Amino acid sequence: MAKTTVPPQSAVLDTPTLGVEEEFLLCDPLTKQPRLRNTEVAAAGRDLGVDLQLELTRCQVETATSIGGHIRDLRDQLRELRFAAADAAAHDGCQLLAVGTPFYDPPPNETTDTSRYQRMAGEFGALTAGVMCGCHVHVGVEDRKQAVRIINHLRPWLPTLLALTANSPISAGIDTGYASWRYIMYGRWPSCGPPPYFESVNHYDAAIATMLEAGVILDPHMVYWDVRVSDHLPTVEIRISDIPATVDETITYATLVHALVVTVMKEIATGSPAPIIDQEVLRAACWRAARDGIAGRALDMDTVRLVPTRQLVRRLLDYVAPMLAEFGELERVTASLEKVFEQGNGAMVQRRTLARSGITEVIDECARRTAEGCDRQTDIALSPS
């Protein structure tokens, strides 16, 4: 993951800071297979003035924004970073794809050649073979006790965030039956999934200590819960999302998360307790979100009944609307969500394109949408000249 320094508070609206990381897949534009070229693409990125991070597998790169106090501080950065990453990939003969999982399995020996990643491969074997690209949103929270309280309050909203951003329905060239196959695959790791309800920061730390003792993780950075206290930054890190298909969807998602965390912080300040959601109910809701995305139904954890997923997305929007209005973003976020409902999120567009035109067109469409809305997007070489 990218290593940045996060100041705990922003002067803008006196709200916590915000940072966004996006993980991308590298693909061969002709064969459509994953390309194990992240080191070379990162080098091309340096030549172009962008810092691309290496991920667990050699067919992935990651971008990270600087730290802002408002989404307006990051909006242009997110566009420019996608453009620069796509440009660097094209310079090395690759397509850059904002997708949660590859359309085909990568070649053997795909683990990135760093000491830490090689140690992970040695300890966890075939688990490290899965390629998963997410979007991680960091919200500045300096006090760890406060951060753990925020995690408890965020737990009920995690399935809705996943459903909204689901963008990985296809694997091995076919529809998996899941809008977010990435989330299902990620669940194989023993430190993944929704976090439990924590009674205190000591309870949180004890859970990590147990995972370390059992060998479930090699270090605290391998705590892959859907939301966690960052091990190296003073932030709460929301990790449940697939990488959204378009930069506009990433901007909307990050804005929603920022508003959600600030809304939760205000509730905590008034003494409002977090709802204690049974862990198995929450896991079931996350599984359903991964299966249906926004196109189907979701588990309402208030009633433990299935309802249209869009109903829960609108409930989230209503919950954070006062904060979005304070940010000056309510109208834009509302319009963006309505566009997603009308045109589909990443999973829906992939499935629609697969049914109409086949897998090759799906991949090319994903490459086009990755760059959609980015600066100078028409100049990006989506395939090598």
UniProtKB/TrEMBL annotation:
Q: Which UniProt keywords apply?
A: ATP-binding, Ligase, Nucleotide-binding
- InterPro entries, per database record: GCL_type2/YbdK_subfam, GCS2, Gln_synth/guanido_kin_cat_dom, YbdK
- EC number per UniProt: 6.3.2.2
**What SUPFAM superfamilies does UniProt report for this protein, alphabetically?**
Glutamine synthetase/guanido kinase (SSF55931)
Highest taxon of the lineage: Bacteria
- According to its UniProt record, this protein's enzyme class is ligase
Q: Which reaction does it catalyse?
A: L-cysteine + L-glutamate + ATP = gamma-L-glutamyl-L-cysteine + ADP + phosphate + H(+)
Which Pfam families does this UniProt record tie to the protein?
GCS2
Gene Ontology MF term list: ligase activity
Q: Which PANTHER family match?
A: GLUTAMATE--CYSTEINE LIGASE 2-RELATED
NCBIfam families reported in the protein's UniProt record: gshA_cyan_rel (TIGR02050), PRK13517.1-1 (NF010041)
Q: What does this protein do?
A: ATP-dependent carboxylate-amine ligase which exhibits weak glutamate--cysteine ligase activity.
Q: Which family does it belong to?
A: Belongs to the glutamate--cysteine ligase type 2 family. YbdK subfamily.
State what protein this is by name. Putative glutamate--cysteine ligase 2
Give the source species: Rhodococcus globerulus
